[in-house]
Structures are given as C-alpha cells and as structure tokens.
Design goal:
Length: about 550
C-alpha cells in the first residue's frame, strides 16, 4: 500500500519538478530531479517522502518570494528581506486588516505590496487606480485567473464552473427580472423558518429565547435562499442544508491546503485532494429525484407546464448550454456552486446587521415605524411588494452601512495580471501578479465618509433625503456601487446576485423587526468580529435574544 502511494506521489512529483527546474535556473542552481527521484524511490518511506515534499515546499517558496521581489518595483508594507518577509507573511495571517489599513494610509492614491508565503500581493488605492482595476479587460487583469489561484477552482468547484459560468447570466438576468415573482416565496419561507429557528433556542427570563446566532442564522439564510434555488420541501431538509453550509466552508479550507504547497505541486495535490465528484454524488441524493421528475414532465407536457416551479433548477434546465450541462448531476452541482456564491456573503451580512440591531434597540423602533408606513398593514404579506420594500430607505441604509463597516473581508476586486500591466501612475506589474483593492480601509476612510469608524445605520438614508433629485439619491442605495463602496466588487464581475441578495435580506429583516423584540444576551454590547487573514466574520459565539411581539 505504502509502495503504491509512494509511486503515485513520486510519479506526479516528477512531472511537477520538471517545471520547477525552470524556476530555479535563473539562480544558477543545478537540479536533476530524475536522479534524485531514482534514489529516493528505493530507499525512503512514505513519511520521509512527505517530509521531503515539505522541504521542497519551503525551498520553492523562498525562491519564489525572492524572485517576485526582484520583479516588483513597488514599496512594501512589512519586511522585504529573504527570511523576514516570511515573518510578515505570517503576520498577514494574524492581522491582515491592520496591515492593509497601514498600507492604505501610507500609500494613499498609490500602490503597495505585501509579502504572502509564495508571492507578493499588490494593493492599489485611490479612485483612479481602482477604476483601472474595475475596467481592465479580463484578458489583462483576470478575475477568473485570480479565483483559479485563490480558490483552486478546478479542484474545489470543478472545471465546468470556470469553463462555462452560464449561471452568472441566469442570476444577472432571469433571477433579477423575476424578483417580483419569487418575493412571495421568500416571505412564505421566512414566515415558516423563523419560528422553527426560535424553537431551537433556549428559554431565558421574561419570555426571551436565546439563539446561537452564527449557526442558526447560517441555517436560516440557507433555507430561505434554497427556497428560491430548489423550492420546497427540499429547502427544509436539514441534512441537505448542512451539506450546502459545509460545502462553502470546505471549498475555502481545501483551497487553503492546496495553496500551502508551491505552485508546481498544486495540480498534483489538487488532483489527490479533489472532492468535486464526491460532492456531486451527495447533492444528487437530494436533488436527483426532483430534477428527473421535472425532466419527465417537460418531455411529456412541454417546458411551460402548469405548476412548473420558478426556481434555479428550472432556469438551469432551460439554459444549460450543452448535453453535459443538461445532465442531472451537472445541474445538481451547479446549484451547489450558486449556493457557494450566495450563501456565505448573505448570511454573514444578515448576522452583522442583526448584531447591530440587537446591540442598539433604538434602530428597531425607527425601522418598524418605516415598515408600517410603507407596507401599510405589514401583517398582510400581499402588501409586501418589491416597490414597497424599495421605499424603506432606512432599512436599505442599515444594510448598506452594515456592508460598509463589515463587508465580507478586507480585500476587494482580486485580479491576476495576464500580461505586463502599467497603471496610470507608471507602476508596472509583471504577468502572474495578484492585484487587489482594500475594501475595509476604503470604507473606513475619513475623506470618503464622515466619522467613518462609527456605525451610523441611517447614514445613507440621510444622504438620500438630502439629495437634490431622486436619481442622485439613488446613488446611495445598497445595490449602487462606486470606488467608495466595494462590498459587491465592481466592473464586469460586479456581484450579479446583489439585487436578489439584498431583497432576501430586507424581507428577513422586515419579518424579524415586525414580529420580534430583539437584544444581545450581553445587553448593549455588539460582539467583536473574527478575522482570519483578510476574511471578516461576525462573532461565532454571539447570542441573540428574541421575544415574540404581541399581535
Ligand atoms: C449581501 C450579499 C452578497 C455580497 C456582499 C456579495 C458580494 C460579492 C462580491 C464582492 C463579488 C466579487 C465581485 C468582483 O470581484 O468584482 C461577488 C460575485 C458574485 N456573486 Fe455575490 N454577493 C452577495 C450575494 C450574492 C447572491 C445571493 C448570489 C447568488 C445567488 C451571488 C452570486 C455571485 C456570483 C455568481 C458572483 C461572480 C460574478 C462573476 O463571475 O462575474 N452573490 N459577490
């Protein structure tokens, strides 16, 4: 068994090390992988081979950072030295946000770089450079290539996802155009899901129920989201929801593991570690029968048979561009992928927003008043239309302020240069460089926002009221982006799900505000966010108390 593994490892290593040799050549190293491999195959155990691999990783990484340093004539934040840059890379894992804020302040309207384990991360700041990042064509600064590196797309989500991202246009067009049609489903699912979530809580004094916010909100948002993706009853199946929740976390973890290896080993580790087909099999257990049944009905009755659900499964079936994509397993995997794009960002935004609402109950009264005004009798869901929710400027502002202060991380607009790219300030990045903007530092820039570090839930509502025209005011809507608001990215790849995501968030928040009183277990205190490298998460230990309101 060990021998077989060793053979597999070494075979794959051989091909990869060939590439590495060319990386090493400029440094005058003479490295003959074939000879070395012949020797180690005969004498080493699997553990020893693994240790050797680890050594190769380190050697390669050192050389890589060193090589990149020579290429980039950009000021560094953190150490540039051969070994010290590793210390800075480690620091970036611990306090990325602080390092990025420092870089932003020092190099405003400019460019700086930060050492990562195996490369430099180039960060651009200022409106003009940001516009370049947003508008550069995919063939120059590529979002897909950046994601391919950062998320190891081919090994975590499957090649199909990257080669044919047709779900993007479904979200951008069909889903967004159908918001009015799917709104009743979102409301209906919220009505059922909230009491189920509260039932999982623990009763405390005065009729209050304590909820483990992070896990419960994750499941809640996943359920409401999947009502629109796959319909009910599947969206209420707890193990199906768990599979989707774990999928998002799994992809990120696996990408991190693969990225811990040097570039030349990643294809090999990725293949060894590939979990796409396992996931496809598991999601098929839940979605397979439903998709097959719909296929049967379409074949029998035509694609607009009565009662055909208006959800992602139907849209995927109608738009799948090839026989392979029309296969039941491909459609099921695609649902999992859209869940990956939509669930995490929507649920973390919801949790951040609820933590603010629960820590400062002053907001709930104002928001409730607004909801009552625009939804007339909010108890009647037929009053809830996209238009009436659109008139709730305070709610819209509350969500935008949540995304401004918290967002989904410190970085935005990750792109990889495919050619030698020159920014207008003369900075040149060689092909293969990872370039990004910093979203948190931009959002907390005092020159862009007054009292930028303070959460002011109605900040954007006030700006809208003060605007001279409705059109000018609409620039402050949560879905409007600019170089000062990067929560949804920008340019060609701007989040296509933002209209749907924010509608879903508004419905859930409105339902909660109308039907429940809410506070933090530790009254008046909003739990601190957790940071993992540049990723920002709402506190995972937060407990929120709910109490059903009368009437
Ligand atoms: C509050 C909720 C959400 C936030 C904060 C958010 C944020 C983002 C961000 C920052 C990007 C990257 C844009 C870029 O690089 O320029 C993105 C892309 C994307 N988002 Fe969202 N998103 C949210 C909800 C959703 C939902 C609900 C869906 C779908 C159901 C979705 C689907 C996508 C897709 C498919 C992309 C990739 C776009 C492309 O390939 O061009 N998002 N999102």
């Amino acid at each position: 068994m060990v021998g077989k593994w060793r053979a597999i490892v070494l075979n794959k290593m051989e091909a990869s090390v060939h590439h590495a040799r060319y990386d090493l050549l400029p440094y005058g190293w003479c490295f003959q992988p074939e000879d070395a491999l012949l020797t180690i195959t005969d004498t080493m155990s699997f553990l020893e081979v693994f240790l050797l691999l680890a050594l190769v990783i380190y050697l390669n990484s050192f050389l890589y950072v060193s090589r990149c340093r020579r290429c980039l004539n950009v000021p560094a934040v953190g150490c540039e030295g051969f070994l010290a840059s590793y210390w800075s890379a480690f620091q970036f894992i611990r306090k990325a946000n602080v390092i990025l804020q420092e870089g932003y302040q020092k190099h405003k309207n400019g460019v700086f770089k930060i050492p990562l384990v195996d490369r430099w991360l180039v960060v651009v700041t200022g409106d003009q450079l940001l516009d370049n990042l947003r508008t550069a064509p995919e063939s120059v600064l590529s979002m897909w290539d950046a994601m391919l590196d950062l998320l190891q797309l081919d090994h975590t989500l499957g090649r199909q996802f990257r080669e044919n991202p047709y779900h993007d246009s479904i979200i951008r067009t069909t889903l967004t155009r159908n918001l009015a049609t799917i709104l009743p489903n979102i409301i209906d699912e919220s009505i059922h899901a909230f009491p189920d979530m509260i039932a999982n809580g623990k009763e405390v004094d005065g009729g209050w129920i304590s909820i483990d916010a992070y896990d419960e909100f994750s499941a809640l948002v996943c359920r409401v989201l999947h009502r629109v993706l796959v319909g009910s009853p599947v969206c209420r199946n707890k193990s199906y929801l768990q599979l989707n929740i774990q999928f998002s976390a799994g992809v990120t973890t696996e990408a991190t593991v693969i990225n811990a290896f040097p570039r030349f080993l990643q294809p090999f580790i990725g293949n060894l570690y590939n979990k796409v087909s396992g996931r496809q099999t598991r999601v098929l257990e839940y979605l397979g029968p439903e998709i097959e049944e719909r296929k049967r009905k379409v074949a029998e009755l035509g694609s607009d048979y009565e009662g055909r659900p208006d959800d992602l499964i139907s849209w995927l079936m109608d738009s799948a561009p090839s026989a392979l994509e029309r296969e039941t397993s491909s459609i099921a995997l695609r649902v999992l992928i859209v869940n990956f794009m939509g669930h995490h960002s929507t649920f973390t935004t919801f949790t951040h927003a609820i933590y603010h609402l629960a820590a400062d109950p002053f907001y709930a009264d104002d928001l409730r008043e607004e909801l009552v005004m625009h939804l007339s009798d909010p108890e009647h869901i037929e009053n809830w239309t996209e238009k009436s929710l659109d008139q709730c400027w305070k709610l819209d502002s509350f969500l935008k302020e949540t995304l401004r202060v918290h967002g989904i991380g410190a970085l935005a607009l990750p792109r990889k240069s495919l050619v030698c790219y020159t920014f207008p300030n003369g900075v040149v990045v060689p092909p293969g460089t990872l370039v990004t903007a910093c979203s948190t530092a931009t959002h907390l820039d005092e020159e862009k926002y007054q009292e930028a570090h303070r959460f002011n839930g109605f900040r954007f509502e006030k700006l809208r009221v003060r605007a001279k025209t409705l059109e000018q005011g609409s620039k402050h809507k949560v879905t409007s982006t600019s170089s000062s608001f990067l929560a949804f990215g920008g340019g060609k790849h701007i989040c296509p799900g933002r209209f749907f995501g924010t509608l879903l968030l508004k419905c859930m928040m409105a339902h909660l505000i109308i039907h429940y009183d809410i506070k933090m277990e530790n009254e008046g205190v909003r739990p601190k966010d957790d940071w993992f490298g540049p990723v920002e998460l709402p506190a995972r230990q937060g407990k929120v108390l709910f109490r059903k309101r009368d009437g």
